[in-house]
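User: Structure please.
Assistant: Input sequence and predicted structure:
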Amino acid sequence: MKVVKKRLRKDRVFLLVLLLFFSTIFIFSAFKVIEWLSDNNNTDKVIEKINNDVKVDEVKDNDNTEVIDEEPTEPEKVSDYFYYITYPLINVDFESLLKTNNETVGWINVNNTNINYPFVQGINNTYYLNHSFDKSYNSAGWVFMDYRNNKEMNNKNTILYAHGRIDKTMFGSLYKTQYPAWYQNKSNHIIRISTPSVNMSYQIFSVYKIEEESYYIQTDFTSDDVYLEFLNTIKKRSKYDFNVVLGESDKIITLSTCANDKERYVVHAKLIKKSER
């Protein structure tokens, strides 16, 4: 009888421990869901305020406009060339943005995605993983430039990061670049950037998904030959062929976001036009 009672007590203790364990998991999970929803809501409010306060205009070329990309010699590429270099730039009023966040660097727009935001630069690549544009704590983070890049965006490779959010904010819609329908619409192949000093357009030449690595996030290179090898490598990785010619004098922009815990979506584009403000 004593043995039976002892077993019953052990069973009760085990069940109690099990109940406490699963209760803790439930409470933690519920807290994370509430936090996620709250962060999403706060991000939406920040985006709404930015869109209400900031003027973003498409602008025509002027005397300050410089075409970087050379006209191709192949006749079949000429029409695409003129399509991309005549695509309008965007011009952004940065006054209110800089008042809200003095680390604002520029504004990025990617056609047929939700990517239409100001981007910032911190002193490292971790702060804006969990801080919003207004510098409030937020797990959604914000779009930010690699701390190794300069604000003038004249490095060989300028890199922008953001979370791939499920609600498609930040770089959560970058996955669309993997779809054939996205690729087949050539108006999607343009990335437009505006900064307080210059407006620029970039033509996409590579999109892919890859396991997390550091190769594609190099910002400086020891020689032109090393850089050209880098360009050829990331171009060959592309899921699609964009028929873009690359050279050692080209400057590129790289967008990087998480596809999951182990993989990243990556987009590369080269500078084809700029206009000093």
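The mean pLDDT is 89.
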